[in-house]
Design a protein that fits this description.
The chain has 101 residues and is of the alpha+beta class. Helices cover 37% and strands 25% of the residues. It has four helices and four strands; from the N terminus they run H-E-E-H-H-E-E-H. A hairpin with a 2-residue loop joins strand 3 and strand 4.
């Protein structure tokens, strides 16, 4: 998450081994696609170090990461109910990005 926030992104959700992030969703952000790509490149460059603690658990099988990204229009805002409310971005683009990843 530090890589995402250092590239002006917002972590939306941790789900299992996935991290969902938004760039430019909270407020208009010039160059948000580039910031997203920069974050992805930094994650890939540090993947070996990040995956190292899990190598032994995986019985030394090859571990890898996948990154899906897209740029377009989404519906953004607070989602949920009174007991559990959080900001998120939803739409066809987010479903497409999950499928591409």
């Amino acid at each position: 998450s530090e890589i995402i926030t250092s590239n002006k992104g917002t972590v939306d959700l941790f789900l299992g081994d996935r991290v969902y992030a938004n760039f430019g969703a909270l407020r208009r952000q010039r160059g948000h696609p580039t910031l997203c790509v920069n974050a992805a490149k930094e994650i890939v460059s540090k993947a070996g170090v990040m995956l190292e603690p899990f190598q032994k658990i995986a019985n030394d099988k090859q571990l890898s990461i996948n990154i899906g990204m897209g740029s377009g229009k989404l519906v953004c805002g607070d989602l949920g109910s009174e007991s559990m409310l959080r900001f998120s971005a939803v739409g066809d683009l987010s479903l497409l990005v999950c499928a591409v990843e």
